Amino acid sequence: MNDKALEVYLIMYPGSADAPTDQRHYTIIIDVRAESNKEMTTGLELHLVVPNSENQVVGFKCAYRTRPSDSFPRVPLGRLTKPLPMVSSNMTLPDFLRYPCLFISWGPEVFEAFLMESVGRRDNVRWGADTNCQKFARYHVTALQLPWPANVPVISDHYNWAIEWYVAAN
User: Fold this and answer.
1) Cα within 13 Å of Cα(38), Cβ side
2) By CB count within 10 A, which of 2, 25, 77, 167 is most buried?
3) Which residues contact 162 (CB under 8 A, 6 or more apart)?
4) Both ends of the chain: CA-CA distance in Å?
């Protein structure tokens, strides 16, 4: 297995020029094939989104992406070294390298578990203080058995009202 395969990154989408880091959209990229370098982060991007801004119902999105590091700051989180929870116990890490689709099926499992733990249901869950991209990114990192960086804030931990206020204002 390549030494750089299965590196995990937290990606922070660009906000407005004056927006603090804690008000950005957070996602996770798993570099399945060791393609990332200093300039680009490449791999499976997993994140919570709002597909329809009118009703603010959250959804899960997974896509193979390349993000320029200068526009999409990244925080290296570590390398996957253990089998993922919620996936058949007979799968090994090399299986994830040969079959990246395993991450695609694993991601929705984590999304549903996040919704159940956050609000106790899976359907019609709206964006809010408990269900937003930052909290989901942190939940996802924990599910990957990696530590959340202490210097990366999650705004609704400190200002529970901020997420609802932002949604109402936009």
Assistant:
1) 0
2) 77
3) 129, 155, 156
4) 46
Burial readout 62-78 (b: 16 or more C-beta within 10 A, e: otherwise): beeeebeeeebbbbebe
Residue 80 and residue 141 in contact, taking contact as beta carbons nearer than 8 Å: no
- What is the pLDDT at residue 98? 65
Structure tokens at 72: 């999409």
Residue 124 CB-half CA count within 13 A: 1
pLDDT in tens, 122-143: 899 988 888 888 999 999 898 8
CB 59 within 8 Å of CB 123: no
Cα dist from 112 to 43, 62, 94, whole Å: 22, 14, 25
Per-residue pLDDT at 118 exceeds 50: yes
CA distances from 149 to 13, 46, 137, 164 (A): 17, 18, 11, 25
**CA atoms 124, 55, 24, 10: torsion sign:** positive
In the predicted model, what is the mean pLDDT of residues 72-94? 74
* 27 beta partners: 11
